[in-house]
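Hi U.,

Before I forget, here's the chain from the pilot set. I'm dumping it here mostly so it's searchable later in email.
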Amino acid sequence: MSILSPSDRAVLWRTAITSGPEERSSLLRVLAAEILASVGRRLDLYGGYEDEVIETVEILDRSGLLGRDDLREAFEEADEDEDHAETFTALLISHLSAAADIERLGVGVRLKAMRLASAWQLHIADRAQAGRQWLTAAQVAAKYGVTPQAVYKWIASGRVRAEQTPGGSWRLPADQFAHDNIKPDVTMGLKAQLLARVADSPTPSDEELAVEIVERRRS
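Structure:
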């Protein structure tokens, strides 16, 4: 599949989210294929990830989050370079995490949203290897399951250290996160276990997750 231009990707995105039920499924699959083609070559995702990307698009569509302007705008630029691809991926993670909080989707879909968010986080984590001196805003966002915009707010408020490159991008010293033991796959997995246990209820909060971790350490 040839990679579309940014303007064509914008048209594809808008067409998919405004399409009727008869053509929506096929258009969502075309959109998923373009995401894999655009982002995949930047993040080294090739064969074997088709189902993961299709499920991501379908869940975001069912949750109503696929229509978010920040996703569409990031998708338009996703093929420009690795930073843009990681920014788009960080937004996928953030919105999948938000979908996991939507009760009307049901436990099965919410658990799938968590699994997919964790999978995308690992794609980014594999690139932000230990010992690296600098992290991008997208890599930090993916680590914490927030949007890159949230990380920019942390930078503006002085909560994290960062330096701006001559091109305008932000780089965050990795050493400030060195003692942070957050492991996205483990944390998301524990949240999924708690959600499966309590069935149709809001996703366990960080406080509930902390209590569960303490209880497990005691046992």
